[in-house]
Amino acid sequence: MIYFIFTVCGLVFLTQSIEIVFESFEQISGYELFETTVRIRKYNRTTNVMNGTTFLKFEVNDTLVTSTDLWYSSLGNQQFNHYPMKLPTAGACSFIKSLRDGYESYLVDIHNLPDGNECPIQARQVRINDMVFPSDAVPPIVPKGLWKVFIICSLQGREVSRFQMVLKMNTFLSLVVVVLPAALALQVIFESVESDEGLGLFETELRVRKYNRTITVVNGTFSWNAALDDSIVVSMELFHSPLGNQQFNYYPMKIPTSGVCQFMKTIYDEYSEYLYNIVNMPPRDECPILPRKALILDKFFPSKAVPQMVPAGLWKAHVFVKDNEVLVGCFTVVVKAYNDNYF
């Protein structure tokens, strides 16, 4: 009887949640600029907390660049492998502003943190009192295990300070009853594809057209007139308009920067099932990639390749191609993400 009620009135399913606890925190280098007494201690049987003080000894601004490097141990046995995901690199002032804008509710246990609009940031003492790791700030698709995070501060390309934080991620299942007439699935469709033709290396004739009442497709050709290798680097920036009104905000998530050959290998390894209507693609292991013209025929956006936790709205992706830091290609793709009934 209970099963019948659940079937008629809603959905019953197991949902996976994550819990993250601090394992360790230490400063590895850069004692001339920072000095920290931050340590991890046991708070109760299941939770660890961060406590201590970090001293910033000198005034800093956006010339001090903060970046991260992630390493992952799936078995939790200290056998770490490099993980191709990172937070966006940012200057010190921009980093603090992003922290304030995106994670203000999680900063209640950090005292004397700079205001989001302070730049340059004055020398100060920042105190952390019994801070629990904010597990709900991490996407649920991140795999369980041990994670080692290096936080690196650089000045004019030279590393001046490094911190190491180790986190343990656990997952657990919960029974959830959702009272809905139907489940919602994320659908993504193309809105526009544009390129900067003035840079000379690439030529595109790509257009988005209506395929039916609800679907759009990309058609056209994409070509390059010189051999490409891993000295040519591909990067991406994402912007999100939650209301779909072209008011875009920078979104702190990106695909890892990589050379063109490595980028193509990743496409083949992760998304080969979605390439069936792209003709004359380079072979997976070709490097350098020779000049060619690829043909795209009625290409739908592969909605299944997008995590369901991605928020709805308009998304703008700027794809940059650089040769020795010189921009040689620039593309802009706009897509619309929305929730739709799938049964």
Summarize the structure.
The chain has 343 residues and is mainly beta. Helices cover 9% and strands 51% of the residues. The protein has helices spanning 2-9, 92-103, 260-271; strands spanning 11-29, 34-36, 39-42, 48-56, 64-73, 81-83, 90-91, 110-111, 124-131, 145-155, 158-178, 184-195, 202-210, 216-224, 232-241, 249-251, 258-259, 278-279, 292-299, 313-323, 326-341.
Describe this structure as you would to a colleague:
The structure is a single chain. The protein folds into two domains: 165 residues, Distorted Sandwich (Ganglioside M2 Activator Protein, Chain: A), CATH 2.70.220; 154 residues, Ganglioside GM2 activator (Ganglioside M2 Activator Protein, Chain: A, Distorted Sandwich). It is mainly beta. The protein is globular, with a radius of gyration of 23 Å. It has three helices and 21 strands.
Give me some keywords for this one:
disordered N terminus, Ganglioside M2 Activator Protein, Chain: A, 343 residues, mainly beta, six-stranded antiparallel beta sheet, 3 helices, 21 strands, MD-2-related lipid-recognition domain-containing protein
